[in-house]
């Protein structure tokens, strides 16, 4: 972490902000021990978009709070009054290829691609298993992030560090 006492703010982006980015937000807030504050947003959430119920079910089954989770547009975080982000991570390939808003403070960026667990024509049981697998994959990578020494989280190294984690 930096020498300031505030947590490292991390924004997870996906197209609809209903599955992967919601999972990442909840997991990091759960395991971040106050050193991290996670948020999530989408480039184009559908009207009245809500977090995917299977994602919420998997989080609850893992003992991770779902309180306050909601789908939101990434424009909320480009506003000058929004929390300042230290790191912005895209978690789906569609959002990674889109032109992002200007993020105040020029945060570090990285892409951690995950398949959409809600996609496809599988049964609810198959989709639930896909959500479980996505949750575990995200958690493994986020555990690596939170275990990094403070020096690796300094602004000058944060982008290369976050991008290195994408290789794991």
Explain this structure.
It is a single chain. The protein has 168 residues and is an alpha/beta fold. It has one domain: Rossmann fold (3-Layer(aba) Sandwich), CATH 3.40.50. 38% of the residues lie in helices and 13% in strands. It has 6 helices and 4 strands, in the order βαβααβαβαα. A 4-stranded parallel β-sheet has the order 2-1-3-4. It is globular, with a radius of gyration of 15 Å. The mean pLDDT is 87.
Order of helices and strands: EHEHHEHEHH
What fraction of the residues are assigned to beta strands by DSSP?
5-15%
Number of domains: 1
Number of helices: 6
**Subunit organisation of the chains:** single chain
Output the CATH topology.
Answer: Rossmann fold
In CATH's first tier, which class applies? Alpha Beta
Average pLDDT across residues? 87
Q: Would you identify the regions where 5 or more consecutive residues have pLDDT less than 50?
A: none
Broad shape = globular
N-C termini distance: 21 Å
- The order of strands across the largest sheet is 2-1-3-4
The fourth-level CATH homologous superfamily is Response regulator
Radius of gyration: 15 Å
Q: State the secondary-structure class.
A: alpha/beta
Percent helix, as a range, is: 25-40%
Number of strands: 4
Task: Characterize the largest beta sheet: strand count, sense, and whether it forms a barrel.
Answer: 4 strands, parallel
């Amino acid at each position: 972490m930096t020498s300031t006492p505030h947590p490292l703010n991390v924004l997870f982006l996906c197209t609809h902000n209903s599955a992967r980015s919601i999972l990442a937000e909840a997991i990091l807030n759960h395991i971040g021990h106050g050193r991290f504050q996670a948020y999530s947003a989408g480039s184009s959430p559908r009207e009245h978009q809500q977090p995917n119920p299977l994602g919420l079910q998997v989080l609850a089954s893992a003992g991770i709070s779902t309180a306050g989770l909601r789908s939101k547009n990434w424009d909320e975080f480009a506003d000058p009054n929004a929390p300042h982000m230290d790191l912005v991570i895209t978690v789906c390939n569609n959002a990674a290829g889109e032109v992002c808003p200007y993020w105040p403070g020029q945060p570090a960026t990285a892409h951690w691609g995950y398949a959409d667990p809600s996609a496809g024509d599988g049964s609810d049981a198959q989709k639930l298993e896909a959500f479980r697998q996505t949750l575990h994959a995200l958690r493994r990578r986020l555990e690596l992030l939170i275990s990094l020494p403070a020096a690796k989280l300094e602004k000058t190294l944060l982008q290369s560090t976050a991008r290195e984690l994408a290789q794991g």
